[in-house]
Amino acid sequence: MGILGRYILFEILKLLVPIWFVLAFLIFILEWIGRMFTIKASAGTLLMLYAYKLPSFLQLVYPIAVLFSCLAVYGAMNRHREIVAAQSLGSQRRALWLPAVIAITLTSIPYLWLTNELSPWGMRKHYETYDREVLSKPSRFAQIRQEKIWYRNQDVLYNVRYFDPGKNELYDVTIYTFDANFQIAQTIAAERATWNGLRWVLTNATLALTDKRLDYPLTLTYKTRETTLIEEPHNLKRIEFNAETMGQSELRRAIERHRALGINTVEWEVIFQSRFSFFLISFIFLFLAFPRALRFRRGSGAAADSIFVAVVCLVYWLLFNFGISLGNVGKISPVIAAWGPSMIFMVGIYFYLRSRNLRSESE
C-alpha cells in the first residue's frame, strides 16, 4: 500500500473510531434519560445500569459509523479534487477503496470481541443490576432450582431430589438409561453424587440391569461408583436461557445441548447467525458510500449525506428485523433469516449502482 493508501486508511480510522463511540454514547444518553423517569432508582444506579449496555450500543452502530466515515473522507477528497489528482497520476479505483476495506478489517477485531464477549457480559451485568437494584430481588442468574428436578441428556433421564450448587453435590439420585426402543435398560439409584472435577462419584449406589437381552434382571450394589451420565455442575445450574448474555462459543454449545434434548432452538440459532451477518453490512455500506462520495458536487453535501445515511439505515433495519421475525416464528431457516436481508440489500445496491452508471453513460 502506497502513500495514497496509507493516507486514506489513517483518515478513515481517525473518523471511524470517534464517530463509532459518539453514536453509541448518544444512544446511551437517550436511553438513560428516557428511563430516568420510568424506573424507580437513583441516577447513579441508572447510569451504571445502562453503562453496561454500552458494548451493545457499540455493536449496533458500527455499520453506521463505517458509512458516515467513508462518506466524509471520500467526499472531502472529492471536493478538494484529491481524487482527480490521484487518478491523473495513474491510481486506479481499487487503490482508493482498498484502504477502507483494510480499515473495516482492522476495526472488526474489537467489533467481533464486542459481539462475542463484551456485549453478552454487559447484558448479563445489566440484568443482574436491574434485578438487585431496581426490583430488589435476587439475580435471575443466581436463582437455581434445587429440589425435585428432572433432567434429560440424550437417551439418559435422571431425577435429583436435591441439588447443592455450593458443594456440587446431588442427593437421592436416580438415573434411567433407555434402549433403542425407549425401554428402560438400566437403572442406577444412589444416595449421593459428588463432583470430583472430572466426573460424578456415586455413593451407596444400586445398579439394576433390565435389558431384554438378559435372561433375568441383574442387581449390583456399589459403595462408590463413578459415572459420566450426568451433566457437569455448570450445565445443571443454568435454568434460564438468555442468548443476549451468552458469547458465541457458549451460545453454540448451549444450542447443541438443547437441540440434543429435543428443545426448539430456532430463535437462539437466529441470534447466533445474525451476530455474524450484521458485520457484513459494514462492507455493503462501504460499496454504497464509495460511488456516492465520488460523484461531482459543488457544495459540501453534508445535509444530503445525513439524510441518505438515515434512509439507508432505516431501510436496512426494517429489512433485517423482518427477516429475524420470520426466522423466530420458523417461517424460514435461521441461516436465511440472518443472512437473507444482507444478501437482498446487496443485490438492491448492485442494481442501484448499475442504474446510476448507465444513466451517467447515456448523458
Can you describe this structure?
It is a single chain. 61% of the residues lie in helices and 16% in strands. With 363 residues, the chain is of the alpha+beta class. It folds into 2 domains: 3-137 and 263-362, no CATH class; 147-231, no CATH class. The protein has a 6-stranded antiparallel beta sheet with strand order 1-2-3-4-5-6, with no helix packed on it. The longest helix has 42 residues, at 93-134. The two termini are 35 Å apart.
Quick take:
The protein is 61% helix and 16% strand. It is α+β, with helices and mostly antiparallel strands and 363 residues long.
Q: Write down the overall mean pLDDT.
A: 79
Give the tally of β-strands.
Answer: 6
Approximate strand percentage: 15-25%
Can you tell me the residue ranges where pLDDT is under 50 for at least 5 consecutive residues?
358-363
Give the terminus-to-terminus CA distance: 35 Å
H/E element sequence:
HHHHHEEEEEEHHHHH
Helical percentage: 55-70%
Number of helices: 10
Rg calculated over all Cα atoms: 28 Å
- The 3D shape can be described as elongated
